[in-house]
Amino acid sequence: MSIFVPNKVYLRGILLHYFIQKKSAAEAHRILVQTYDDNALSDTACRDWFRRFKNNDFELEDKERSGAPKKFEDKELEQLLDEDPSQTLSELGKILQVDESTVSKRLIGLGMIQKQGHWVPYELKPRDVERRFGTCELLLQRQKRKGFLGYRLQLMRLSRALKEKRPLYAQRHDKVILLHDNARPQVAKPVKTYLETLKWEVLPHPLYSPDIAPSDFHLFRSMAHGLADRRFHSYEEAQKWIDSWIASKDMSFFRRGIHVLPERWEKVVSSDGQYFK
């Protein structure tokens, strides 16, 4: 019995189907991997095709390429970084259909550098410097006034899980303090509205500041060492590894990432809002 091996056009048609169903590129990629395993399109390719669909480009066949190198506008690269500033040179190059060196030169021209795995401006705009300085100053004042936020260990728990595991949760006045960055899903209006219903305290976080986000400078940085040279063949395999890796860390590991925050806020203030070394 022969095994069906889908070609690229067939898989792109499936992506278009999921796009019309208003699924995200990540959801579509996950379904493709679950169904077609190694024959699935890459996550980068899925995002690229979803971007084309959003621009009303529904041609699924490969377009003929001329002998001349492909050119792209700075705004295309800036849009990609705005959507996901953690993309690598390789991923950006594949989407823009150019080599890594071309992307690297253009990023240098745009004044972008990598901080904690994120592309950020080398020279912050005055308003971004002011926001970093002001936000960290307010956070330091809050720490002195209310005590350190790290003693509340359930920062990232969902309200339902808290209610199930901690029966007295609803009676507490100092419930959850949440610190997250400015990624679009996290600052979307429905998310803000939901957080208001939970009555969690959401700490401010300035733009272009992965250096004061524990998930970036502590959690993901440590996880990256464990992921070196590791390949996954399915979403479930990757999820199992991540769950196992997190379970292997004791409470002190997560506490360290939070406890160092005041020190980093101090460095931002001491640097007048600029990046610190």
UniProtKB/TrEMBL annotation:
GO molecular function: DNA topoisomerase binding; double-stranded DNA binding; histone H3K36 methyltransferase activity; histone H3K4 methyltransferase activity; single-stranded DNA binding; single-stranded DNA endodeoxyribonuclease activity
UniProt superkingdom: Eukaryota
Residues of the Mos1 transposase HTH domain: 8-57
Cellular compartments per GO CC: condensed chromosome; nucleus; site of double-strand break
Biological-process GO terms, alphabetical: DNA double-strand break processing; DNA integration; double-strand break repair via nonhomologous end joining; mitotic DNA integrity checkpoint signaling; replication fork processing
Entry-linked InterPro entries: Mos1_HTH (IPR041426), RNaseH_sf (IPR036397), Transposase-MT_Hybrid (IPR052709), WH-like_DNA-bd_sf (IPR036388)
PANTHER family recorded: MARINER MOS1 TRANSPOSASE-LIKE PROTEIN (PTHR46060)
Protein name: MOS1T transposase
